[in-house]
Write a structure and sequence with these properties.
The chain folds into two domains: 4-69 and 176-345, Zn peptidases (Aminopeptidase); 71-160, Peptidase M42, domain 2 (Elongation Factor Tu (Ef-tu), domain 3, Beta Barrel), CATH 2.40.30.40. It contains ten helices and 17 strands. It has helices at residues 4-14, 24-34, 124-127, 145-149, 177-193, 215-224, 245-248, 267-279, 297-302, 329-345, and strands spanning 40-43, 49-53, 60-66, 71-77, 83-88, 100-105, 108-115, 137-139, 157-160, 164-167, 171-174, 201-207, 228-236, 258-261, 285-288, 309-317, 325-328.
């Protein structure tokens, strides 16, 4: 299981607030953690973080986990000091009322709560439908527009208040597990690979703006020009009531990472991963993605330049896009082991053309 420094990094990383387009906190945390074990660590103009091992090798392998999260952006401040906002990413409107939030400003975080009309004042029809974001506001305790504008500005980003807690020995919740757990796996894989002899160059990337269109992975992959790409993201855990396993598969927390089969996954690379995992007696779960393609950084990496051999590894996640997403560290640990063993086994002359 992950050692104390890894767990400390996990908590610090999860407590970062990094809404899409404003991932500064998470990027800094990611780069600092890898600065002592990689040949190079840098950021690019979008905010992607790139750590490199064995950069002179001919074959380049890219690992990607996005550390942006869903959030909000201020669009208006009323005369009463209340703040109207828009969504930034795939917000679930049912989860939003009464949430604690933090507005990210140049001077630091400003706390607030998302307010709405009290239930006592709602009509019967209003009580039985989801509120629109336009029916909510952020309250930071200001009494006037002028008072609010001394603290925040139109255009500032906001996120759910930072939280992190273990539930038992292996499971934890946080508001930004999607997909800081994937970026965590990238970081831990880079640390593990730094102790191995490598025949390939490895680029561990914490990507940005995935929640608003897979944007960071697109530019990072173009710059790196990898022959092999792994994306690590969360996937739906189906070990909950009323989740249809017939359409989403049987995916359970603690049973290992999910190795996917879809148009985004190269057949040859997938077979190699499974063969190595089996030989090392590493657990994994099989799943067919609920979409044939798209939805994760894998899709953008795969279509870079002349094409990349890609594979998506999913960490089972409960309550996705909520304030209390839950994952199991055993699944993350399994992903690190499978990735480490697969990449360490590469000789640098492999071909990934299906059918050859």
């Amino acid at each position: 299981m992950f050692n104390a420094p890894s767990r400390q990094f996990l908590e610090s990383f999860m407590r970062c607030s990094s809404p899409s387009g404003f991932e500064v906190e998470a990027g800094k945390c990611f780069r600092e953690y890898l600065s002592d074990c990689c040949d190079e660590v840098r950021a690019d103009v979008l905010g992607n973080s790139i750590a490199v091992l064995n950069p002179k090798a001919k074959m380049r392998v890219m690992l990607a986990g996005h550390y942006d999260e869903i959030g909000f952006q201020i669009v208006y401040i009323s005369d009463d000091g209340l703040i109207n906002f828009r969504k930034n990413g795939g917000i679930d409107k049912l989860n939003i009322p009464a949430s604690e939030v933090e507005i990210l400003t140049p001077k630091g975080r400003v706390p607030g709560v998302i307010g709405k009309k009290p239930i006592h004042l709602l009509s019967e029809a209003e009580r039985n439908k989801a509120l629109e974001l336009s029916d909510m506001w952020i309250d930071i305790g200001a009494e006037t527009r002028e008072e609010a504008e001394k603290l925040v500005s139109v255009g500032d980003f906001a996120a759910i208040r930072s939280n992190f807690r273990f539930l038992g020995a292996n499971r934890f919740y946080s508001k930004g597990v999607d997909d800081k757990i994937g970026a965590f796996v990238v970081a831990e894989t880079m640390r593990a690979l730094s102790k191995r002899k490598l025949s390939v160059a490895v680029y561990g990337v914490g990507t940005v703006q995935e929640e608003v269109g897979l944007r960071g992975a697109q530019t990072a992959a173009f710059a790196i020009d990898p022959q092999v790409g792994f994306a690590i993201d969360v996937g739906f855990a189906t070990d909950l009531p009323d989740i249809p396993r017939k359409s989403l598969g049987d995916v359970r927390l603690g049973r290992g990472p999910v190795l996917n089969r879809s148009c985004d996954n190269n057949i040859v690379l997938g077979a190699m991963m499974r063969k190595i995992a089996k030989s090392k007696k590493l657990a994994w779960q099989e799943n067919a993605q609920h979409n044939a393609t798209g939805g994760t950084d894998t899709a953008r990496i795969q279509l870079t330049r002349g094409g990349v051999a890609t594979a998506l590894i999913s960490i089972p996640n409960r309550y996705m896009h909520s304030q209390v997403e839950i994952c199991d560290l055993r699944d993350a640990e399994g992903a690190v082991k499978i990735l480490t063993e697969t990449i360490a086994a590469l000789k640098g002359n492999e071909k990934f053309i299906p059918g050859e």
